[in-house]
Amino acid sequence: MNKFLKKFCLIILLLIIVYIIYLYTFYDYNFYSSIIETPIPMFTKIEEKDTHGGFHGDGEALVKVYFSDKQAEKFIRKIDKNIHWDKLPMKDI
Fold this sequence. Notes:
Elements: H1 2-25, H2 27-36, E1 45-50, E2 61-66, H3 69-81
Antiparallel strand pairs: 1-2
């Protein structure tokens, strides 16, 4: 029983470590990609600024994604194919 408990604790610890690594490396890319409905290339530089004061959506968020020229071209092609993105100028409502 003691060996089983040690193995179980080790597995839980490893899962926690993997989850923390995921949060600090891939979570932002997946989160922002889902918001804009276009994949952001992994390991591009992302800067975030949030004036959120702590209550349900108060404040503003600014996210800058820095692309290389090649990444920018691929990203623009993906936007052109995405039905959720409209071309500029925006249509009158």
